[in-house]
């Protein structure tokens, strides 16, 4: 095993951190049960025997890596797709079940809260036991719950129960997909690859409402879970027969998988562990205390809160949009879904442009300071531009709808809000994957844990607050809160990031000294 005893492990990690050449990993995130920050050089060396040349970070061929990221991206779209497909038919569901708008919005809140906490359960095993079995198990839960939603009799209580299992099954794929991308992508290219992967989760707002409104308007809302079950079943088969294990502790750098056929036959739920000298570092065992240590590291906690605040704003707009388009602009259930195209396209544009810009800025920092450390927190500096764009779009949306300004102006406002949110998200995702590489899926799960409850709260309080203060001031308040809270957090990270890194490094040194005595 790579990790034999605490003292030797600590010494080895400290010596490895001194080899950092181009800042591709942050040594400040090491030890202390937070994570072990691994440099590019040490990550490559973990699969090397004394007499062998240094192997690549990932031995999978370029074609196989592209295939894996494509499948992971498609699977990553399933969860957000299943959430947003129901948004255009919320008024229809309220009439179908004979409940109020507040009650039907509670089903959205239930989905989002479950979708938030489920990844903590799934990813705790994914970072330790492997990605493949969790993909398969979570998709199985998702498929079964969708099939039951499609065929069971009309009953609101049953609908809510099945939406819980629906969200529980869908909750694994986004955080685990980000962990899989981190497994097979070296840090220097991780921002761009993450931006490609996030196309899946962010295409949910693009295609989900369009598909949901088309199925709900032309056929029945029950075609929505039926469609999701069919798509997920196909993806599950592809994973079973074609997607190799990527967790570096079990699969190393993928050399064994690359030497075998693309078709995994006979298929196995759990892949065999590679030889000891080829394994990646052993992740810490998943515990609630471990999650707390992750979250209590200030940069991770602040980033998680930042994205939660912005996501609640975006989701409030998503919930308000179908009611605004139906009540103020006379759109039908079928056409309401088209209204989500603007914000969906904005998410994709912000994701791709933000990912490439983030990597470009990182490369420039490395070139400007050869041999110096480039901290992961530097990826967060440019988030302020996304915050400003999101704030502008949010306030515009509220006032444009309130004054019944032309619908094109409303859609432009949703575009700006979506672009700003996506710009911030991609920087946060790249940062988390770089700061805690051994617990990447767990770090992304923590982000989901805060994002989705925030979205759930926004969807519940929207109807009552809108009736009390009006839609214009509701979203103006959201915009001001985003500017103050998120903007301040970005400044705080830039100012105190070096201090927190130094403090973490000193704690690691004290741990090493205690291990020697």
TrEMBL record:
It is found in: Membrane. InterPro entries: MFS, MFS_dom, MFS_trans_sf. Its main location: membrane. It comes from the Eukaryota. It is a multi-pass membrane protein. GO terms for molecular function: amine transmembrane transporter activity. It holds the Pfam family MFS_1. Residues 25-36 have a biased composition (Polar residues). Residues 7-21 have a biased composition (Low complexity). GO terms for cellular component: plasma membrane. This is Major facilitator superfamily (MFS) profile domain-containing protein. The lineage of its organism: Eukaryota, Fungi, Dikarya, Ascomycota, Pezizomycotina.
